[in-house]
Amino acid sequence: MQKIGLFFGTFDPIHKGHLRLATYFVEHTDLDVVWFVITPQNPFKQDTKILPNTERLELVSLALQKHSKLEISTVEFDLPQPNYTYHTLTELKKQHPQQHFVLLLGADTMTAFDRWKGYDKIISAFELYIYPRKIVEPIPKLFLNHPKIHWTDAPIIEISSSEIRQGIENGEDMSDWVPPASWNYLTEKKLYQ
Q1: Residue 193 is assigned to a structural domain of this protein
Q2: What does the alpha-carbon distance between residue 40 and residue 75 come to, in Å, rounded to a whole number?
Q3: How far apart are the first and last CA of the chain?
Q4: Long-range contacts: 58-63, Cβ < 8 Å, 24+?
Q5: Using one digit for the tens of pLDDT, what is the confidence trace for 73-83?
Q6: pLDDT, tens digit, for every residue of 30-75?
Q7: Which domain holds residue 120?
Q8: Residue 177: CATH number of its domain
Q9: How many domains in the chain?
C-alpha cells in the first residue's frame, strides 16, 4: 500500500512553488508520492475563467517530467460538476481501494474547512497534512489539535498563479516562477496573453 498525498488545484498555471511544496511532502513526510489532482472548476470560484483542462494538463505534465514521485490525477475531469473534494475522495477510494490517501491543504483553507461539503466525513476517513499559508481569519479550534490533522513545516510559497497570469498579461517576464518546459509551452501557445 502506498501513501499518496493529494494536491488539488487548478494549476493555472503550475509554478515552481507548487513543485517545491510537493517535493517537500515526498522528501520530508511519510508520503510515497504526491498526485497533482487537476480541478476543472473550484465551486468557490465559479466566476473565474480558467484555461481548458487539456492546456493545464499539458503544463502540469511538462512540469513533472523529471519528478518520479510526482504524478497527475485527472479523476475530476470525469466527475459531475461542480467538484467537491468529498466526492473526489470517495471516487479515488473506489478506484484504488489498496491505497492510503492523504489530503494536502493550505492553512488558509482550514479557516473555512467546516463549510466544505462533507468535511466531517473527510476528517473521519482521511488524514490532512497542512502547509503554511498567510491567513487572515482564525482557524476553528476543532481543527487545531485534531488527531487526523498534521501541521507541517513546508516552505511558504510567495507566488500565486494569479500573479503569474497578471504578469504575463502585462508583458512581464515570469519565467523565473514557472518550470522551464511549462514556460516554453505557454509562451509558444501565447497562453494568458
Answers
A1: no
A2: 10
A3: 44
A4: 58/185, 59/11, 59/13, 59/14, 59/182, 59/185, 59/186, 60/11, 60/14, 60/36, 60/182, 62/179, 62/181, 62/182, 62/184, 62/185, 63/14, 63/18, 63/19, 63/178, 63/179, 63/181, 63/182
A5: 999 999 988 88
A6: 999 999 999 986 556 655 688 999 999 999 999 999 999 999 999 9
A7: 3-188
A8: 3.40.50.620
A9: 1
